[in-house]
Each structure stands twice: as structure tokens, then as C-alpha cells.
Amino acid sequence: MSERARRPTVKEVALRAGVSPMTVSRTLSGGLNVKPDVQQRVMEAVAELGYHRNENARSLRPGHSSGLIGVAITNIANPYYSTFALGVEEEAALTGRRILLGNTSEDAAREADLVGDFLGRRVDGLIVVPAGTTSAHLAHSQSQGVPVVLASRRIEGLAADSVVLADDDGAYRGTIALLDRGHTRIGYLGNALSIFTGERRYAGFARALDERGVAVDPHLVAANQQTVDQAREATRTLLRVENPPTAIFCANNRNAIGALKEISTQLNAGSGTVADFPEIMSFDDFELAELSPVPISVIDHDPRELGRTATRLLLDRLDGGKLDAPAREIELPVSLRGVR
What we know:
Elements: H1 10-17, H2 21-28, H3 36-49, E1 68-73, H4 79-93, E2 98-103, H5 108-120, E3 125-128, H6 136-143, E4 148-151, E5 161-165, H7 167-180, E6 186-189, H8 196-211, E7 221-222, H9 228-240, E8 247-250, H10 253-268, E9 279-283, E10 296-300, H11 303-319, E11 329-332, E12 335-338
């Protein structure tokens, strides 16, 4: 049985609901002239079978591939992820495939809806930057014969290929570099610690401090910032503490940009000199980092290569006859670079 044949059909939904295929189609198209109780039976059958409408049915012949790869990212406003998507697109194009790109805004429910839409459009496979730890929708995709590759983050318990960064090691090395420069009051700005990358990068940060006998000061740790504005506000709070940090470790470029915006604002307002503000260590490079008003270093890597590597893993499943092979994990290295 082919991977496409394993997907539930309209006829199977109709059989489960005890109605005709036409009634199923009408229900899914808005329910015109279909009784409410019948609509409910149809929708229950759809949920039980995991049926997704085939939005490409008119343009696809039976047994043919759509040539599409669904890509779900967490923040389309972040240039990091647009560069990642470019890597995916470039690698997919080598096999004549195109991508469908969607944004989840770090919302797991939105991710599940997006994946459902991708499946409805009969994508060949999925590349997902997970927004949370739930995996039922991704496991369902795999059960339908659609392989999944996780990028940047892994999900515990989901047997899927993944490509991640050396988050722990990079954060450790970045923090050690700050300690070597004499900093002991080091602040931390990052996203939620429950997120895969947030947890690993904070672990590397804390490990470096512990190794040098420096206790983590909870007053200098700010997590859950997803946007530049949130990071800017968190930086403002850090700078107001009685004994403010002399350096700040930023777990991603959104937090680094927010920190620099707040520092620049305070400098322009005459609130001090450059020497009065903290040095910045950013996990992720970003444009114009060299214009920072304070010393800054970055833990660098190539998001484009992250996208390419994830796509190669997926294409290996699709074209290399490895649909049932064990899950593979790849960890890409990072490098520490002084910018200013």
C-alpha cells in the first residue's frame, strides 16, 4: 500500500458517519442543506479518522506527488527564520520541489492547525520549528506517510529526524568568555526556559557560572521575551537593579536587539557613558551588530545551512527509500566571534 493510500478518504468518512460522500462534501463546504445533527456526525468522523481535505485534488492525478514541502517557523518577523527558509527553499529546488511557508508565533495550537492545512494540501513532507512540546499532530502526519523533520528544536518522545545547534556548548563558551573578561555580574535575557533552545542555552550559561564559582542571581535572569520590545523592557528592569549587570548574555538575536535598543536610548538621553552599560553576548548574529554602542560578541552559526541540512534529511526520506529508517539527530557547531 502506498503512503498516499493510507490517508483516509471521503468515502471512509461517509461510511463512519453513516451518510453519503456528497453529504460529507457539503458539510465540509459549509453545511448548506445539511441538518445540524448530521453535520455533527460527519465532523466527529473526520476527527476520529484524522481526515484532511485535499485542497490540491483538482490539480493532482492519483499517485502523483504534489512537489510541496510544508515549512512551519515560529517568528516570520525574525530575519533569522527567513534565512533558514531560504536554505530550505534552495535545497528543495534542487529536486524540483517548492515550499509552503507558515508562521506559528510560538503557538502550539496554531502550529497544529497549520500542519493540518499542509496535510490538506498534500505536502510531500514537513519541516517544523516546534512551538511547544506537543507532538500528536506531527505523529499523525507520520502515520499518514508524510515524514517530519524538526529544526532548531526537538520534541521528547517523537521519533522524527532533527537538526539542532550546539546550544549548551555555545552558551557555555560565550559565558566563559565574559567571565574571562572579568565579569561576575552577568545578566541573562532569553525566551521561555520550557522551550528546547531556551532550556539548553540557559543550562550552558548556568554551567559556566557554576564552574567558576559564581552563583546565578535570579534578579539578573529574565526569560519569556519573544519580541524585541519585551526584551527592551526586560533590559530596562535589569539596569534598574541596585547592583546592575556589567554584561548580559542574550539567548537569541531578538533579545540582543532589544537590549541594545534600550542601552542606546539611555545613552542618547545622557543617562551615562558607554562604560556605565553592560557588554553584550548574543547567541545568533544579526544585521548591523557592528554598530552596537557597547562591546558585543556573537555565538555565530548559519541559519541557511540549518535549513539546508533539515531539507536534506527530509529528501533522504522521500527520495532515498528511507521512510521507515530510525530517526536521526544532527547537531551543528557554533563559533564565538567578537564584533566590536
